[in-house]
Design a protein that fits this description.
With 108 residues, this protein is an alpha+beta fold. The chain has two domains: 76 residues, 3-Layer(aba) Sandwich (Rossmann fold); 26 residues, no CATH class. Helix content is 42%, strand content 12%. It has five helices and two strands. Strands 1-2 form a two-stranded parallel sheet. Helix 2 links the parallel strand 1 and strand 2. The longest helix has 14 residues. It starts with a helix and ends in a 14-residue tail after the last helix.
Length: 108
């Protein structure tokens, strides 16, 4: 598809908020094809609030696909785990726009 061709060419591809919305089987397969075609050919940054063990839930419940995807992604990866409250929410708290007693789940 045009999507696969257009995402292989850039030197850097960024996928932000992976897992925020679940993918159906076709979308999950397309994502795998993109990653497989870029594997060892271009840089890729993926941000997510999900642990790797939760990725199958986003990939239409396909644990085999999640394992194959993570195998390619993590082979040469630099994983940078971040913990803590969202900076956007932190700024809103400081400005008094969010009740300081309201718990907000930190990013994983």
């Amino acid at each position: 598809t045009w999507l696969r061709g257009s995402v292989r060419n850039p030197r850097l591809l960024i996928i932000d908020e992976f897992g925020y919305l679940p993918l159906d089987k076709s979308q999950a397969h397309d994502l795998f094809q993109v990653v497989a075609k870029r594997y060892e050919y271009g840089s890729l940054i993926i941000t997510s609030n999900l642990n790797f063990g939760q990725w199958d839930q986003t990939l239409a419940g396909d644990s085999a696909l999640a394992a194959a995807l993570l195998d390619r992604l993590l082979h040469h990866a630099h994983v940078i785990p971040l913990k803590g409250e969202s900076y956007r929410l932190k700024d809103k708290r400081k400005a008094g726009l969010i009740n300081p007693r309201v718990a907000v789940k930190p990013a994983v």
